[in-house]
Amino acid sequence: MRIWVDADACPGVIKDILFRAAERMHVTVTLVANQPVRVKASQYVRFLQVPAGFNLADQRIVELMEPEDLVVTADIPLAAAAIEKGGVALNPRGELYTVENVRERLALRNFMDELRGSGVDTGGPAALGQRDRQAFANQLDRLLARKR
Q1: Which of 99, 115, 117, 136 has the greatest number of beta carbons closer than 10 A?
Q2: Tell me: the pLDDT tens digits for 72-105?
Q3: 3-state SS string over the chain?
Q4: 43: which residues sit within 8 A by CB, 6+ positions away?
């Protein structure tokens, strides 16, 4: 199993958790972004820069990932594509996407896009808190333990 990170919007604290897990579990973590991203010097951590452009990082992740790989993203269409390809998708807040809930999240995302498009201020997500970081670390540990 390899871990792919949609790194453009991934919080630094989540990247740090992933870097520690890569070292501890000897699993490859590849951060994909369209601009340079800070990575830990490690044989298990890689960075792949893609050209600037809408969803190019997401497309590259889906191209390169294999079934059973883990994709870390808050991007619901990317999570859906990863699941469709046989992968596992995990939100930086620790929510594991499934075939069932990703459809629901896509519908909600599309509805919110329509609201924003009509001028409604829908706000943004709450700041990532300690509880979110702990939920992410716990879910990541469970996924890595199952793959061993």
Answers
A1: 136
A2: 999 999 999 999 999 999 999 999 999 988 877 7
A3: CCEEEECCCCCHHHHHHHHHHHHHHCCCEEEEECCCCCCCCCCCEEEEECCCCCCHHHHHHHHHCCCCCEEECCCHHHHHHHHHCCCEEECCCCCEECHHHHHHHHHHHHHHHHHHHCCCCCCCCCCCCHHHHHHHHHHHHHHHHHHC
A4: none
pLDDT tens for each residue of 42-69: 999 999 999 998 889 999 999 999 999 9
Cα 141 to Cα 137: distance, rounded to the nearest angstrom: 6
The two tokens of residue 4 are 């792919």
